[in-house]
Design goal:
two-stranded parallel sheet, about 65% helix
């Protein structure tokens, strides 16, 4: 599925939420290890992400994987640890069967996960029920899906209530939509005024 600027959030039904939160609770220890940063850590996160992208249809260009190398543990450890958990989630057969576009998957890592990692320890998204739900819902939302059995309104309300990060994201999107609507209205009013003036000048 390829997202575009005109795609409405969560318009497409997705998997059962419980299947994703259960998968997160069963995250293997291999995805909970220390990410490789410089000479420390064991797990090469870029390789994990590359394998995930290949499962969805295509390996990533090297420059797209640079963000998963990490520079310093203080700045990058939690973000990379969360990326490993997200790789496990997105390797679920439901996602893989849909061959999600590489650009959409990478945007989840560079956008949503960066925001989450800035406020919450990565392993909470495995050990804490609310954080598991938050991660599952955010990943679905950013890819244009909603949990099976929920309407768009229900999914949006629940996501907003459980995630402060996504609540800010939804508010920003709403404000941007309102601003676009104002610009369109202003352009229509200006055009109508110009057409009216042109009509009077001809008469």
């Amino acid at each position: 599925m390829m997202m575009t600027e005109t795609t409405q959030p969560m318009q497409t039904p997705g998997p059962l939420l419980e299947s994703l939160t259960h998968r997160l609770s069963d995250t293997p220890v291999e995805f909970l290890g220390e990410p490789r940063i410089g000479e420390s850590g064991a797990v090469h996160v870029a390789a994990l992400v590359n394998d995930l992208l290949f499962r969805h249809g295509k390996r990533a260009p090297a420059q797209s994987l640079a963000q998963f190398m990490g520079a310093t543990a203080k700045a990058d450890r939690n973000r990379l640890a969360l990326a490993m958990i997200a790789v496990w989630l997105l390797a679920d057969s439901w996602f893989v069967a849909r061959s999600i576009a590489q650009a959409d998957l990478l945007l989840v890592f560079s956008d949503a996960l960066v925001e989450l990692a800035a406020t919450t320890p990565a392993h909470k998204f495995v050990n804490d029920p609310d954080r598991r739900e938050e991660l599952a819902r955010i990943v679905l939302s950013r890819l244009g899906f909603r949990p099976e059995g929920e309407t768009v309104a229900q999914a949006t309300d629940r996501l907003s209530s459980i995630s402060g990060t996504e609540r800010r994201h939804l508010l920003q999107a709403s404000r941007a939509a309102e601003e676009r609507a104002r610009e369109i209205r202003a352009a229509l009013v200006k055009r109508a005024a110009e057409e009216s003036a042109d009509k009077w000048s001809r008469e």
